[in-house]
Amino acid sequence: MVFKQRELRWLHFGAFTDDHDACSAAKECREAGFDVVDVHGPYPIHGIEEAMGMKRSKLTWACFFFGLSGLALARWLQYFTSRDDWPLNVGGKPFESWPAFVPVAFELTVLFASLGVVATFFISNRLFFGKKPRLPEASVTDDEFVVVIRDKGAGLTQTDLSDLWDRHGAIRSWDQMEEVKS
Amino acid sequence: MEDNSLREKATGGSQMTTKNQSTAEPLSKSYQGIMATGFLVFAVGLFAAPERIWSSWLVSVCMLIGLAMSGPVLIAIVRLCAANWADRIVPIAKKTTSLLPLSAGLAILCVFGASTLYDWFHMTPENVSSHMAHKLGWLNLNSFILRSILCFVVWAFGAKWMHKKSGRGRAGVFMVLFGFSFSIFSFDWLMSLEPTWFSTMFGVYCFAGLFLSGAAAITLVVLRGIHLGAMKPLSPNLAHDLGKLMFAFSFFWGYIWYCQYMLIWYTDMPEETSWFATRMTGSWATLSYLSLILNFVAPFLILLPAPWKANPAILGRVALILLVGRWLDLYIIITPTAFPDLPPLGLWEIGPPLAVLSAFFWMMSKKLPKLSLAT
Question: Apex CA B137: angle with CA B131 and CA B142, to 5°?
Fold first, then answer.
């Protein structure tokens, strides 16, 4: 019988009333050797991706390939139906008269790209109906910003951290244990 | 420490500008030379090859009008969208209207070329064919001149409006007025070259070309200003935004071109297809495809990756491609009327457009140091 070992680590939270403060705090936390887990807020913050050190999203590639598959499907359908399966003479034009088919092919490209990328976004973020939101505090849906960080073992003390929060004008800060998923 | 470095940067920047303000635009001599040569080519061409030079003159005038009016249009769009990103571009966009008097002057000359350029000039109720008779009330020299003057008056006042710190309401009114007046201008000056042909999309097609060339020209002026030290270097965000503007309107031009082409091709009515029949066959077809590549395919592919959109060196090259594309676009609209079989290309076709472009960049580079954009 194997017992799964529970591993715990600390998460640190700082709450701010100003988005710029949250942004600069996240940036300094990262420079001081913390992992910025997330920054919660009521609206998107300009420049938060750089402050958190997020990598460029790979979602654009998903969008590209969904768009490509939409285009391919549209062209195949048009080619197959109007040239091979059921050729119709429309004003003496060639059966496979592609200029007329461009708008539909374009629309199907957009449809596949947009629906596909939204689905990819939901799946990759594990967002589904009925999922309980994991918010550090209810106030982040109202007027506060909360920066969540995790120690990477850079050897910073609790006073260093509370100094950091204070310097950026945090109104509250607290810590919490988190179970590490393995 | 951070404050110090900021101050150093600021003083360094101002030293750079004072140094560069004393040395004016080094290219201004070449601009003046090209302008003089180009206008000389026009004068000689009036006697040597009047038919070719008038077509080429019309291309140049339309190009300059487009560049002059793209500034107010950009400002109006920026105000309507409350686009803060363009704050540093707006002072330059305001200055493009200083080309409006020159373009009006050059446009007046076209009246003397009207008998060479426009078929309807020679039409009278006696000699006109039955399917053209109803158009004579619109297409005659007096009403043509009246409408053109009205257009220029609307544009001059609109440009003045956009020059002031006016609100969104005025920007909206200007856009509506400009949309109407520029459509009518395009119908009168370009579409009536082939008076039996008509396309309701022609106005927006010409507008797409105008705004695309304007975005390219303004980008080039910005890059030139930075090179001369009259402007602060572009932040990556602003460079990215300029790239996005060119990318979007390049796509818009391609979209409108295709819409017009596809609807006419699909309906296949002789009075509508005549225009494309000349332009999409023989040597003109090669030039039409080249125009599609220069205005749409090449900028689209080059500006697709985000890092390339934000790279000033690439932006400059794309802007140059787009200006050549703008010339080719107008050349294909105008020249086949007089030369349906073989595209004429020589000194007469190249001189005047180059003169007009030099006039634009000369005028803009003279205005740049006075804008104090270096800090």
Answer: 135
How many angstroms separate the CA of residue A88 from the nearest CA in chain B?
A: 15
Tell me how close the Cα of A46 comes to any Cα of chain B, in angstroms.
Answer: 12
- Cross-chain residue pair A100–B261, CB shorter than 8 Å: no
Q: Are A16 and A174 in contact (CB under 8 A)?
A: no
Both tokens assigned to B228: 């001369």
Other CB atoms within 10 A of residue B350 CB: 14
3-state secondary structure of B65: helix
| One domain for residues A66 and A35 | no
**A106 occurs within a structural domain:** yes
First to last CA, chain B: 21
Could you report the per-residue pLDDT of A39-60, keeping only the tens digit for each?
Answer: 888 888 888 888 888 888 889 8
B262/A91 CB distance under 8 A: no
Reported as a single tens digit per residue, the pLDDT across B349-369 is 999 999 999 999 998 888 887
Domain boundaries, chain B: 28-371
Q: Is residue A54 part of a domain?
A: no
pTM for this predicted structure: 0.83
Residues of A in contact with B258 (CB under 8 A): 102
Q: Is residue A28 part of a domain?
A: yes
Which chain A residues touch B268 with a CB distance below 8 Å? 91, 93
CA distance B135 to B143: 12
Q: Specify if A117 maps to a domain.
A: yes
Q: Give the count of domains, chain A.
A: 2
The verdict on a CB contact (< 8 Å) between B268 and A99 is no
Residue B287 sits at the vertex; the CA angle it makes with B285 and B288, to the nearest 5 degrees, is 60
Tokens standing for A140?
Answer: 């982040």
Measured between CA atoms, the residue of chain B closest to residue A102 is: B262
Q: Model confidence at A3, in pLDDT bands (50, 70, 90)?
A: low
Distance separating the N- and C-terminal Cα atoms of chain A:
18
State chain A's maximal CA–CA distance in angstroms: 82
- For residues B366 and B28, the answer to whether their CB atoms sit within 8 Å is yes
Domain shared by A68 and A106, yes or no: yes
> In this complex, is the C-beta atom of A153 within 8 Å of any C-beta atom belonging to chain B?
no
